[in-house]
């Protein structure tokens, strides 16, 4: 009894400490033409400054407890961006002989948010990771036609190794015969990277009747074995 209590207590201590390790990040980054100010928690974007819309955006869905950085969040981001750009000018002068580090994306993945059901609204996701510097450009096509304007892309999120990841999303309704593509451009790539999403091919790779047929055959063979075993057992007993 005592041992059980001790184990329970220990596991509680462990779960509390595991629970207490959250990773809160804030990044401010800039280039000559671009900038980013973002707050993240445990790999998720909590809020970022949209310098085109001149607003601070909270991209989490409404069921997540809302976090707010207050009224001044956007103004603060603008001020930080200005400081970043000033520092960048100084750095560009002082480090002008040091070549820029460049890492091409290590992976590009295309997949759907939800299980594919024909005629039902879904989201195609193009996830790019492992690149430096940020950002990447992601463009989309549907049956060869550009549909990039209908897509969205989040701000670059840093990985633990100092590279970045970005995710672009495209609302779509899966229909047989439609083929989508997402194309990624990055400073370190001489040729863009393209991933294809073929609705038909993707639906065929779903596990259909195959496994259930095998399961049915397996069960039948198994039951036959039990019946045969029982038969011989009874026969054997009759003989003795
Ligand atoms: C991304 O797109 C912008 C605007 O079209 C362009 O200026 C920039 O060079 C592109 N970046 C890359 C890495 O291709």
UniProtKB/TrEMBL annotation:
SUPFAM superfamilies xref list: Immunoglobulin, MHC antigen-recognition domain
Localization: Membrane
Ig-like domain sequence ranges: 105-194
Alphabetical GO biological process terms: adaptive immune response; antigen processing and presentation of peptide or polysaccharide antigen via MHC class II
Lipid bilayer topology: Single-pass type I membrane protein
Keywords in alphabetical order: Adaptive immunity, Disulfide bond, Glycoprotein, Immunity, Immunoglobulin domain, Membrane, MHC II, Signal, Transmembrane, Transmembrane helix
GO terms for cellular component: MHC class II protein complex
Positions of transmembrane segments: 209-234
Signal peptide: 1-18
InterPro entries: Ig-like_dom (IPR007110), Ig-like_dom_sf (IPR036179), Ig-like_fold (IPR013783), Ig/MHC_CS (IPR003006), Ig_C1-set (IPR003597), MHC/Immunoglobulin (IPR050160), MHC_I/II-like_Ag-recog (IPR011162), MHC_II_a/b_N (IPR014745)
Similarity section: Belongs to the MHC class II family.
Protein name in the entry: MHC class II antigen alpha chain
Gene: Orni-DAA
């Amino acid at each position: 009894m005592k041992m059980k209590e001790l184990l329970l207590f220990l596991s509680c201590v462990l779960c509390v400490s595991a629970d207490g390790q959250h990773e809160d990040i804030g990044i401010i980054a800039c280039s000559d033409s671009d900038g980013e100010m973002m707050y993240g928690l445990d790999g998720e974007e909590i809020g970022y400054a949209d310098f085109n819309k001149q607003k601070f955006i909270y991209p989490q869905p409404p069921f997540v407890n809302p976090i707010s950085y207050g009224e001044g969040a956007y103004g603060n981001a603008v001020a930080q961006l200005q400081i970043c750009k000033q520092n960048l000018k100084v750095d560009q002068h002082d480090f002008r002989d040091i070549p820029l580090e460049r890492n091409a994306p290590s992976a590009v993945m295309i997949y759907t948010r939800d299980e594919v059901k024909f005629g039902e609204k879904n989201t195609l996701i193009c996830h790019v990771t492992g690149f430096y510097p940020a950002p990447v450009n992601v463009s989309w096509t549907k049956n060869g036609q550009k549909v990039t304007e209908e897509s969205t892309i989040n701000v670059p999120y840093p990985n633990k190794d100092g590279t970045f990841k970005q995710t672009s999303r495209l609302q779509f309704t899966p229909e047989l015969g439609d083929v989508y593509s997402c194309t990624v451009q990055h400073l370190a790539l001489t040729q863009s990277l393209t991933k294809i999403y073929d609705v038909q091919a993707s639906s065929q790779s779903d596990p259909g009747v195959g496994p259930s047929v095998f399961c049915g055959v397996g069960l039948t063979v198994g039951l036959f074995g039990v019946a045969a075993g029982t038969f011989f057992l009874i026969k054997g007993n009759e003989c003795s």
